[in-house]
Specification:
The protein is an alpha+beta fold. Helix content is about 15%, strand content about 20%. A 3-stranded antiparallel sheet has the order 3-9-8, with no helix packed on it. A 3-stranded antiparallel sheet has the order 4-6-5, with no helix packed on it. Strands 1-2 form a two-stranded antiparallel ribbon. The structure holds S-adenosylmethionine. It comes from Leucocoprinus leucothites. It holds the Pfam family SET.
Length: about 180
């Protein structure tokens, strides 16, 4: 399913609305109600999800190169922030437990954002972040290009991403040791 478009738009979920921008990639998803920190916003309705190749619209759901899903809903309009207000929690081995959770209080009308490297190892379409947060990364390319300390500083990073970062660092250490 392509991204929902402005023409004939019908929201997928009552708790969100797409704010369509004029330019390419300038849209965002806004909350239509307030949420408390820790509250579940929406389950990732496993019946909507489809497996597919890595794309700027896909979300990584595991450590493998084939572990990418399309959301097939308004959720595709969720932008990245280096100081995000939601988490995509795909940590359960059971996809029906995957969900979106508030990381802090969210006001009605606020744009919902997650930290893309919390799900993405090596992104299909890197970009320069415009979140303007104090700790903005600048270029967003995926967790592969971040240190473990940058990842654990976030309120949420999926365990398969931390596992990939740990493996990367271990391989690097082994290479160094082999030269000693
Ligand atoms: C899945 S789309 C998110 C929705 C997108 N804004 C749109 O209008 O289609 C991901 C793309 O949105 C843009 N994007 C998301 N978060 C951004 C951010 N913090 N700064 C700049 N561009 C961002 C990038 O072009 C990125 O590849």
């Amino acid at each position: 399913m392509p991204k929902p478009s402005k023409i004939g738009y019908i929201p997928t979920y009552p708790q969100f609305i797409v704010d369509f921008g004029d330019g390419e990639f300038s849209s965002c998803l806004r909350s239509t109600r307030a949420f408390n920190a820790g509250e579940y916003l929406v389950p990732l309705d496993a019946s909507r999800l489809t497996r597919g190749p890595k794309a700027y619209t896909s979300v990584q759901c595991g450590p493998g190169s084939d572990d990418h899903i399309e959301l097939n809903s308004d959720l595709v309009y969720i932008n990245h922030s280096c100081d995000p207000n939601i988490a995509f929690d795909l940590s359960s081995p059971n996809p029906s437990d995957w969900h979106i959770r508030a990381l802090k209080c969210i006001q009605s009308g606020e744009s919902v954002t997650f930290f893309y490297p919390s799900t993405e190892w090596d992104m299909d379409q890197p970009f320069t972040c415009d979140c303007l947060s104090k700790n903005c990364l600048g270029r967003v390319r995926g967790a592969k290009y971040l240190t473990i300390s940058q990842l654990v500083k976030q309120r949420w990073t999926n365990p398969y991403i931390l596992q990939l970062a740990a493996q990367r660092d271990e391989q690097f250490s082994q290479r160094i040791r082999s030269h000693l």
